[in-house]
Structures are given as C-alpha cells and as structure tokens.
Design goal:
The protein has a single domain, classed as Domain of unknown function DUF1476 (Major Prion Protein). It is an all-alpha fold. It has four helices and no strands. InterPro entries: ATPase_inh_sub_z (IPR009945), ATPase_inh_sub_z_sf (IPR038293). It comes from Sphingomonas gilva.
Length: about 110
Amino acid sequence: MTTFDDRERAFETKFARDEEMQFRIIARRNRLLGHWAAEKMGLTAEEADAYAVAVVQADFEEAGDEDVVRKLVGDLTAAETDVDEAEVRRAIEEKTVEARRQLIESQG
C-alpha cells in the first residue's frame, strides 16, 4: 500500500506544480499583453507598467481569457487604435508562447 500512497502523493505534487506553472505563465502573458497594448496606445513607460498590472488584475474577473480580451479590445478601441479582436487573440497566443519560454529559461 505504501507504493500506491507514494505514487498518489507524487501525482498530487506534480499536479500542484503544473497548476502553479500555468498560473505563472498566464500572469506573465497578461503582463506582456499589457505592455504590447500600451505600446499600441502610445503610453509612457510608467503608464505601460501600470496598464500591464491592470491587465493582470482584469484576468481575475472571470474564468478564461474573455475578460482580458474584453479589456484589451475596449481600451484599444477607446484609444482609437486600429487593433481588432482577432489581432488581440493572436497576441494572446504569441504572448502565451513567449511567457512560457521566459519562465522555462528563468528556471534553467
């Protein structure tokens, strides 16, 4: 029975580690998205940092990415940029890959 318990604990530990890594990837992705959108809106470096934090916080409104998409599209539209929802969704995919790469590199 000890072997089974050890395997169960190992799976639980791996699951927790994977969940934490996914959370960190999404938070970093959202920060990168905030800086990407800030650049499109012509914000200063200080404003961009604050905006990136706001994008990270927007992700806690509901599960999934729709809250982030809604914030980015709304803010980019209000700033009269020519960025549409499809471009925001492409940026989400690109920044997810970039965030994952950055976290993996920082661990190695």
